[in-house]
Amino acid sequence: MQQVIQQDTSKRDTSKIKTKNNSDLDKKIEYKATDSVRMSKDKNIIYMYGNARVVYGDFELDADYIRYDQKKNVIFASGRTNPKTKRYVGRPIFKSGTEGSAIADSLYYNSATTRAKVFGVFSEQEGGFFSGGQSKKQADNELHIKNMMYSTCNLPHPHFGLMISKGIATEKQIITGPVYMIIEDVPTPFALPFAFFPKTNKRTSGILLPTPGEDASRGFFLQNAGYYLGLNDYWDAKILGTIYTNGSYEATLSSNYIQRYKFNGNINLNYASTKNGIQGQEDVGKNFRVGWSHSQNPNASPGSTFTASVNVSSSTYYRATAATSSYDQSAIAQNSSTSSIAYSKVLAGGLFNFSTALFANQTFSSRQIDLQLPTFNLNMSTISPFDSKNRSGEQKWYQKITVGYSLQGKNTISTQDSILFKPEGLRQLKTGFEHNIPIGMNFTLLKYLTFSLGGTYNEVWNFQTIDRRYTTFTDGSYTFRTDTLSGFKRAGSYNLSTSMSTKVYGKTKEFKNLGNIQQLRHVMTPSVSFTYSPDFADPSAGVYKYALNQDGQRIRNPSTGQDLTYSMLEGMAFPGSFGGRQASIGFILDNTTELKVRDPKDTTGTGNRKIPIIQGLSFSGTYNFLQPTRKLSDISFSGRSQFTDKLGINYNGVLNPYLLRDSTNNGIFVQKLEDSRYFWQGGKIFPRLQSFGFSFDYGFNAEAVKKKNENYDKLKGQVEKQGMTPLQSEQLNAINRDPNAFVDFNIPWNFAFQYSFNYSNILGVSQITNTLNFNGDFNLTPKWKFTFNAGYDFKNSGLTPMNIAIYRDLHCWDMSINWIPYGAYKSYTVTIKVKSSILQDLKLSKRQGFYNTYQ
């Protein structure tokens, strides 16, 4: 029995007070209030004001005002009207047992019978919301409801819903009287005299209505009609279909799965039959796509990970189906796709890391497919074998020696997709292993120079080699046939290297008469390396063979005059690094330049900030002393300049140090050839620019994008704090994976463009390509948004296909009109659909181009 705690009403104690429930000696009522608690003269009625709280067993109640009649065992709770704002605040919030919490205008609860009568309730049940009306809870947990609305809108006063005139809700079902649809407080003729709803407390299966539209080549269509299957709390599935008036059709099976705190993913299977051409003479194309994405929570299995990103399709799938009817121009124009499934695990307390993966790469234009089934890597962390864990003082020179090890193995197939699973395709399987053992030592000299010494041993094991049969002709030309032979072949190589690097700080230039500009600073990071390796290209080393003609005689290389050789491991799983004798110097020069300017936002007048003018402008190349000619390699350069927070430029290029010469035939010019003379030997001042490219993108409203991310992070934190359902978790993951798949009404306007320029000059033949893409959006009103996406084709002097869309934010509904006004994928669609609660809170809408991925 609980001890009864009396209350001294004269002091108006606001601390927690406990009393005994006369109806049940095994339970107690706990209550408190922050403003005041008082009792009636006979002490049978307790009044609680301001953030009042009552707990009785598994029943919890919070409200601005609570009255407890101890004699009748009746608890009454309500809010209050704020005299300043005239708004009703402090509504009762209650929870009973394992049921979710609910909000009401007022309620009565009998602690003896556990019956309750609730007015103006608002509660969430598995993504749906009950609001308004009256409800009465019986002792057997049946709930009698009257004039209550059910909706997926998460507002207390929803925009639409089903009005239930009368009904009874049990643990597993809801039985109602007349039911009718209400939209924006307007009753509609969509009604039923009675209804029966199974209450499974989990996802429910149902019909998915199609989206109508018109495609310029395939005709009118009904898109993504189908059925949703709520399999259980961890799996769901959708079966969708699209039909066109010209006879084309598409079918999709998609499924999402999730186990909280462990993993989540989705599977998509697509099939399309596309008809093109004149009726009766159509060209029918059959296409498919298989997609699978899987990610593992890092905390689910510490030390191991498993991921999957599979995107396998027929070569014409995206072009024939307009990217699964999304009309996404980047997806339609893509020429390749990559898939991978990977697993990794840390072994031996972190000393080893093992990983294995399956890779697939498709090139749609050539129908080439490259598979690695599978690969694996075993990497050992670098160790210092001569150092001691208990060492005291500085390391001796031999204690700085480090050793590492890595093992890699793979099976590869490179063939056409049409013969992949046929015997001639499977015969192209290549298998091999590669071992690498790096040995090194680092030390500092004269405080500023960092040196490293070391070498690497590389050994490859292959289970296939090649053999070539050459045929020579009277004019000195030749041809050959390559045969792949089965059999084990091992070969090893090694190199020795040393390198040195330092930093050179340029003299700081100070400015006094350039406004806010104060200083210019330049930092150079030069690095020089030397590498030596023996001649592994000599046939005596066992990797290369002499090219022999049909008479068994050696063939001369027409360009060098030397005997022609070839590697037996060419094109194998691990061809290794078996080049000629090398003694080369490599050089890298990295440059950084920045300005220090006064910060106009600093009110003290002493603040400043740095503006990077050049970030990482690097030049690199090599010089091989043992190469007979053309010892100097091409000189590559790349860098980035960030002028403002919104504008940054990337650039790269190649400088060729050799002159060009004319190749003639009987005095007639044929083509340019590369000479062995350097550019200064021909009187040139600068090396030849062989290629150059730069690109930049600019967004005019970066602050708006920042606010969108802050809004997303805020909602994510709130939902995680309250606890996410699997469906909410997947919705947030979808937004996080690709924010561009959603229209954000929180951003009033935005405009961005991307430009890229590429120049190449190969043997005197120059070519220029440049592309411009731009996109933007703006809110016509706080609820209407206009978006567009297009580009400019400089080669054809015209616009690329444009996508225009208008979105209407109806809070709990989406309405969108998508229009492609011209081009091969000319079309339009009109869509109206219900939003999820997550998108309602974020004020996001899904773009038409991404419905098939995230719907």
Automatic annotation (TrEMBL):
InterPro entries hit by this protein: LptD (IPR050218), LptD_2 (IPR045659)
Domain of life: Bacteria
Residue span(s) of domain LPS-assembly protein LptD central: 174-658
Any single Pfam family the record assigns to this protein: LptD_2
Protein name per Swiss-Prot or TrEMBL: LPS assembly protein LptD
Source organism per UniProt: Pedobacter jamesrossensis
Organism placement in taxonomy: Bacteria, Pseudomonadati, Bacteroidota, Sphingobacteriia, Sphingobacteriales
